[in-house]
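I hope you will forgive my troubling you with a question about protein structure. The matter concerns a single protein, recorded as an amino acid sequence and a row of backbone structure tokens. Please examine both parts with care and let me know of anything in them that strikes you as inconsistent. Here, with my thanks, is the record as I have it:
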Amino acid sequence: MYIFKLCGRYMTTRKIALASVISILLGVATLIVVNSVMTGFRTKMRERLHGILSDVVVESRSPLSGFPEPDVIMKRIKATCGDRVVGMTPAIETVGLLSYKPKGYSANPLTREVQIVGIDPKGRCEVGDFRSHLLDKENQADPSFKLRSNALAWREMNPDLIDSKEEWPGTILGYQIATFRSHGMQSDEYLIYPGHEVIITTVANGDGGRPEPASYKFIVTDLYRSDMSEYDQRYMFVPLEALQKVCGMQGRANTIQIKLRHESDAPAVVAALRTMLPPQFFMVSTWEEKQGPLLQAVKVEAFLMNLVLFFIIAVAGFGILSTFAMMVIEKTRDIGLLKALGASHRGVMGLFLAYGLALGMIGAFCGAAFGILFTIYLNPIEAVLTQWTGYEIFPRDIYYFDEIPILLDPLNVVWVVIGSLLIAVAAAVFPARRASRLNPVETLRYE
């Protein structure tokens, strides 16, 4: 009983302990906030990456010529993998140049490098999250490369954007290709509208397999926004048949996207397909393997950031250690009196450990509460700070997110709290052992 009474007395009278509590509080709160933001970024990035790539990807080792009869290959894949496969679609991926004249720009066309992807839009929706990234709601319901009513309205309102009334294949452009946002701007400005004519120039499979340039005109019918600049500023989607014609790859493809019933089956499916398909002609990988360097870099960054932030709590632990060490020296006479009155070695040691645990619990629980509240209201806080300081803390023109992505994981909060409690108790062990070994006769000899 005396342990709890003395702990309570020390908590209310020793103001120096408040510094240790505040250190733990700030460390726990900072770790929760930063971990929630990084987890939000990582989760959203994985969702976007997985949305553009299916569970398993089969690729040709010769992208320019691809492989013939993709339908036959898909039947073989279905026969090999059975019910584990729920969707497949062929595609052509190649690089090229996009030329266009922005609205009100009469000089020479602007040109930029793009990744051209020839797809069947309905098949693409079966293997990935393609539908939800289309800006035109009408196109989301029935994805296609047709010029919808919304796009036709833009075309009628902006007749200077088109050079002819001929019908050309449609294309869906990445959002950042068609828009720009200067520093300080809160909204995007459009360079290219639906109904706009663009020209792509790419490499075709010429006579004898020799590469040769090829150009073709397309009409912009919709925009694709995944909130991943890697895709939004480079990718443009065109009809598979049109790209086959442009690239001289009629009846061919260079990639097959495969959707699985259970994503956990991906390693087994990849192993089976690597055995079935000739490795000198085909590459088979999961979407995580294709994005391995990026995912691993984010994972390592998150680990190092958490490790560095956890040192803040470790610093608080050393604060508890130094506070308790001074307390042992200062309270040597009191410790001697406790032992003379019958306190055991374990009782004295338990006193200091309980005190360390109490400091850790107050700091950890208050820090967890503060960190959770700060995380929940992080976006409103960011908006207020931006308004007060005039400095954009979260620049939308860099991240192209409407708000800071946050994912508050309760399990992470629990581990942070447990870790801080362990550090607080561990910091009290050495002073507690030293205090428990004091001899009451020696401590009271000169009193």
User: Anything to note?
Assistant: The chain has 18 helices and 13 strands. The first helix runs from residue 2 to 13. The chain has a mean pLDDT of 78.
